[in-house]
Amino acid sequence: EFMQASWDIEEVQAKGIQHLASFVKDKSAFPFLLKCTGVITLAMKTHIDSLDLQVEGCNLLLEILSQALEQGVTMALDESVASCLLHTVRKHLENEEFLSMLCTLLMMVSASEVAAENLRKAGIIPDLLSILRCFLHNDKICFSCCAVLWSLAVSEDNADQAVLESAVPVTSAVLQKHLQNGVVAESACSALWALALQGCLTDSDYEPTAALLLDALRMNPERAVLVKNGCLALASLVRLSETAALAILLDSKGSGTELIRDEHHLHLDEPGVAEALCLLMNEMVQYDEVLLDMRSQKMEELLSEIKLQFPFS
């Protein structure tokens, strides 16, 4: 009430945010703090030029969201909150340090389907792509933005198809730049999978994207989630085009079928990985030429092995 009575006074908003922040460590205050997100974001939007207030507000929202995620509470932030956050993003596009924090916040917010949809409606995708282009070197920003892209593309109703298509080269650039950073590569692979699912790739994208995903698998073979999502992305590409299937077989850095075999043996106890590998192989055998090659490489043996390993799946 104190903050709402004096929207226009920056000092009142700053003191209010600081006071709310003092309750963060008190577990019993959490349900009440949850109700304050709208007040905090509106204070940030009203005093958009005050970087100190933006940073404190963002920190407080991160604390509240972290606790919500820990406790399994879904925070479906409404459209006004999404629009306030987007307003803040646009105002501070040059501030790398603050953007890094803000993108982490957006990633946490987008974990809720409703909030992700509200961010999409607010038109955040072009802003995410601009941020990625400007800060391709920043692993933290790339990780967060790709995670947000994944959330938005997965829940996408194709209303923004053209915008999503423009995300393909940017996401590929992130993966190329951070191939050896498992955390970022995992996030970028997930985003590419979602974009492939939405049919956002063109004929000229299939071969280079397949090669890039294979590189990501080779560089991070031990990361189960990356392997799973990378294989699902490859399966989506193969479903769309035989070019992608042939690119996997004839990759200049080594046979994709050998890579599939290696990944299975590395993740013998991971049903999610086995399922993704089977889905990929299932898409590949739809093409006669690819099927013959897989037979010659005795892939039936691998399939029998997987069947024995997971008889009830």
TrEMBL record:
Pfam families: TPR_CCP1_N
EC number: 2.7.11.1
Catalytic activity of the protein: L-seryl-[protein] + ATP = O-phospho-L-seryl-[protein] + ADP + H(+); L-threonyl-[protein] + ATP = O-phospho-L-threonyl-[protein] + ADP + H(+)
Enzyme class: transferase
Any one GO molecular-function label of the UniProt entry: ATP binding
Keyword Kinase: yes
InterPro entries assigned: ARM-like, ARM-type_fold
Keywords for the protein's UniProt record, in alphabetical order: ATP-binding, Kinase, Nucleotide-binding, Serine/threonine-protein kinase, Transferase
PANTHER family in UniProt: SERINE/THREONINE PROTEIN KINASE, SERINE_THREONINE KINASE LIKE DOMAIN CONTAINING 1
UniProt name for this protein: Serine/threonine kinase-like domain-containing protein STKLD1
